[in-house]
Amino acid sequence: MDVSLPLTSPSRSVAASSAVEIPQYRRRAIAAIWAAAALPMAALAWLVAPAVADRLSGEGNVPLVKALLLCLTAGLVWQFVLVAVLVWREQRSLRWSTVREALWLRAPRSPRSGRSGGRVWLVLIPLVLAFGAEELLSSGVPYPANRDMGTFLDSHAGHVFLNGNWTWFALIVVLALFNTVLGEELLFRGFLLPRMNGAFGRGDWVANGVLFAAYHLQMPWAMPTTLLDTFILAYPSKRYRSAWIGIAVHSAQSIVIVGLVLALVV
């Protein structure tokens, strides 16, 4: 997928450092990158996973859960590969010093004081609490029980399946890592958000949040509440010019899930 052509002119690029420039992408390129992440996830969840489940062992909902874990992990790993390819094509380098600036992987900087890191990290506290409230709100939205991890973990089948099952626990850890650190957040807040100002102006963070909600084709029932991530993940990441904000807040979810699964495994 060629996204090297649909860029704005160099005069509209945003300089991240003296050595790294972040170009501004046109809407066509942004939509293409979104599709490259969203459409494979949808296909894996709704087409590939049911087919794979027919070939897996287990009682009740276990085969589908296994298939979803395998397929969604593959989709998230693909997003990491996609980001790496896009950064390489753009910067011609994958050195950490380049990647750090190209993907906003630097400490948050206060737009008022200019302070970087330190007490600025305290902004994570209200954001994590807000993200937790969003999760509680989403639990009231109707969803297919056979595709919900929380429902599965509460079930007898889930307890039996995970008890002492370190292999599948390891896969869940990998899925969580690529979900909130190396996959979704790296793509949406690390790569896309810094490149959307040229196409959307001051509303770039709003567009980023809407795209992130629409990306959830693999679980469309989550789209309405995921729109709240526009304010909880996208806006703070833009305001503090740091993808670590979105990664840290979103990863609170992964830590809880991994903790719950570990309790069942041991």
Care to describe what's here?
- The protein has 266 residues and is an all-alpha fold.
- It has one domain (24-265).
- It is 64% helix and 2% strand.
- It contains 13 helices and 2 strands.
- It has a two-stranded antiparallel ribbon with strand order 1-2.
- A hairpin with a 5-residue loop joins strand 1 and strand 2.
Quaternary structure classification: single chain
**Which stretches are poorly predicted, pLDDT < 50 over at least 5 residues?**
1-18
Strand order within the widest beta sheet: 1-2
The percent range for helix content is: 55-70%
Q: Radius of gyration over alpha carbons?
A: 19 Å
Q: What's the main sheet like?
A: 2 strands, antiparallel
Instruction: Please tally the helical runs, counting DSSP H or I stretches of 4 or more residues.
Output: 13
Would you summarize the structure shown here?
With 266 residues, this protein is an all-alpha fold. The protein has 13 helices and two strands, in the order ββααααααααααααα. A two-stranded antiparallel sheet has the order 1-2.
What layout of secondary structure does this protein have?
Blueprint: E1 14-15, E2 21-22, H1 27-53, H2 62-91, H3 96-102, H4 124-138, H5 149-154, H6 156-162, H7 166-180, H8 184-192, H9 197-200, H10 204-215, H11 223-226, H12 229-239, H13 243-265
Antiparallel strand pairs: 1-2
